[in-house]
């Protein structure tokens, strides 16, 4: 008896092990070899192994969760390319129907801490998750869970600093020992002079660049399908574009109003 693997799961597994530089996941899966998969798995398993949590200044439970996710992704992809399981391409219409039922159920189960926004979208620049919330598509609790998920996917600050040769293993261990429990690893390293402001900014920039898009969470949880996410991305671009145009217009008006060269 064969087990079915959804296309969404396989794409998410590829994203987890190989990163976001793959442009066509279907072709990539068709040509993926066991040796390539094993190399990617070993690298990712080393990066997320919970035994390194103390060295990298990360929570061991979070590392353990990420490590288990890497194992699951490897096993699923390995089974797929070995031909033991089949990939089921889910019907887009069926997904939309199920998503509508899910959203309807969410709205009926809303509470004080898990509510859906019901008003005008703020006339300011928004991030994708915020735009979904202000559009009434996801609840406050779902947005919070999505942000927490995205942060857990980020590469570790200590790992980036170690890979770049900015910090040594001994320095990382010293920072972990010296800092207070509530203080951020990177901010403490900056404050104590272990890293410069430029290095800190570069590490944070690299961390954000490598984090998974928040839309992947809504796709993975079945809250939105890919076509819905793409449609909302376009709407967000239009919204932010209008906000920018209005801000520029407002700035120009105020500048001309108080200009010393104004004749009328």
TrEMBL record:
Under Gene3D superfamilies, the record lists: DnaJ domain
Q: Which domain of life is it from?
A: Bacteria
UniProt-listed InterPro entries: DnaJ_domain (IPR001623), J_dom_sf (IPR036869)
Listed SMART domains = DnaJ
Domain J: start-end pairs = 13-82
Name of this chain's protein = J domain-containing protein
Q: Which organism is it from?
A: Candidatus Scalindua rubra
């Amino acid at each position: 008896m064969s087990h079915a693997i959804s296309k969404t799961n396989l794409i998410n597994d590829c994203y987890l092990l190989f990163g976001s530089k793959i442009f066509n996941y279907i072709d990539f899966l068709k040509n993926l070899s066991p040796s390539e998969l094993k190399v990617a798995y070993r690298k990712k398993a080393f990066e997320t192994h919970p035994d390194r949590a103390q060295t990298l200044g990360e929570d061991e439970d979070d590392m353990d969760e990420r490590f288990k996710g890497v194992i699951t992704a490897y096993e699923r992809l390995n089974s797929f390319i070995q031909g033991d399981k089949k990939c089921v391409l889910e019907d887009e219409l069926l997904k939309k129907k199920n998503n509508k039922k899910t959203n309807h159920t969410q709205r009926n189960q809303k509470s004080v801490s898990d509510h859906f926004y019901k008003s005008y979208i703020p006339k300011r620049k928004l991030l994708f998750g915020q735009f979904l919330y202000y559009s009434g598509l996801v609840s406050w609790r779902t947005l919070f869970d999505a942000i927490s998920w995205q942060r857990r996917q980020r590469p570790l600050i200590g790992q980036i600093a170690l890979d770049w040769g900015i910090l040594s293993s001994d320095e990382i261990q010293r920072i972990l020992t010296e800092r207070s429990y509530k203080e951020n690893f990177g901010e403490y390293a900056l404050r104590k002079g272990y890293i410069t402001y430029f290095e800190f900014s570069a590490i944070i920039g690299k961390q954000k660049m490598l984090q998974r898009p928040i839309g992947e969470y809504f796709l993975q949880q079945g809250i939105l399908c890919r076509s819905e996410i793409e449609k909302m991305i376009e709407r967000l671009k239009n919204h932010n574009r209008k906000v920018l145009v209005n801000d520029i217009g407002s700035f120009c008006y105020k500048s001309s109003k108080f200009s010393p060269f104004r004749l009328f």
